[in-house]
Specification:
- There is one protein chain.
- 27% of the residues lie in helices and 21% in strands.
- The chain is an alpha/beta fold.
- Strands 2-3-1-4-8-5 form a 6-stranded mixed β-sheet, sandwiched between helices. It has a two-stranded antiparallel ribbon with strand order 6-7. It has a two-stranded parallel ribbon with strand order 9-10.
- A hairpin with a 2-residue loop joins strand 2 and strand 3.
- It is globular.
Length: 207
């Protein structure tokens, strides 16, 4: 009997450097502690800057190098109490605080000729439901904001529209060690992200 080997898949997963005076960013802390393989995906982990435009440039350059099947970006959303897969990215830059290079855009488009918005090409609702079902606080989010997280998410969705590369974004709360509320234990963040990866399957159009 001939054995058919499943093709290894590649996941480029990113987390941000600290910003806004914080000493850590839980997005990178959680990403860096994930296993190197989850659900048949080999993970490439990438720490990226909290800088408008530059964050996306760094991810796009890495994607050219590793040719991922999926790009999943993780960011911190202070004030949220749950892990929130994002459904939508909008064509807007607006900063309440400077990014890490001092940029403070106000109601600027990310791309002058870009679409108003793009939907995630990963099953955000399915991922949120799977995390929640396992006992970790999670819910679908309809807004990735207008800061660097949204800037990155939108740029990647624009770049990879109508390609085989799927793109998603997940926001996580403050980590308990940051001393802010609401917060989540790092172990729960890691568990939630692992569950998200295990439940991000996209059905083939021919199925």
């Amino acid at each position: 009997m001939r054995v058919v080997m499943k093709k290894k898949r590649s996941l480029l997963i990113t987390g941000f450097e600290p910003f806004g005076g914080e000493e850590i960013n839980p997005s990178w802390e959680a990403v860096s502690r994930l296993p190197n393989e989850i659900n048949g995906y080999t993970l490439t982990k990438l720490r990226i800057p909290v800088v408008f435009g530059e964050a996306a440039d760094v991810v796009l350059a890495k994607a050219e190098e590793v040719s991922p099947d999926v790009i999943l970006c993780i960011g911190q959303a202070g004030g949220r109490a749950a892990i929130t897969p994002e459904l939508v990215a909008i064509n807007l830059r607006h900063a309440k605080i400077p990014d890490n290079k001092g940029n403070v855009p106000k109601d600027e488009p990310i791309l002058a000729d870009g679409s108003v918005a793009y939907f995630s090409t990963l099953p955000a609702r399915q991922m949120a439901e799977a995390i929640s079902a396992a006992g970790v606080a999670s819910q679908l989010s309809y807004s990735a904001g207008a800061y660097v997280c949204n800037d990155l998410f939108y740029t990647l969705l624009h770049r990879y529209q109508n390609t085989s590369i799927h793109v998603g974004f997940i926001h996580i709360p403050y980590a308990t060690e940051q001393g802010k509320e609401p917060a989540m234990e790092m172990e729960d963040m890691i568990k939630g992200l692992t569950l998200a990866i295990e439940n991000m399957e996209i059905k083939n159009e021919n199925e």
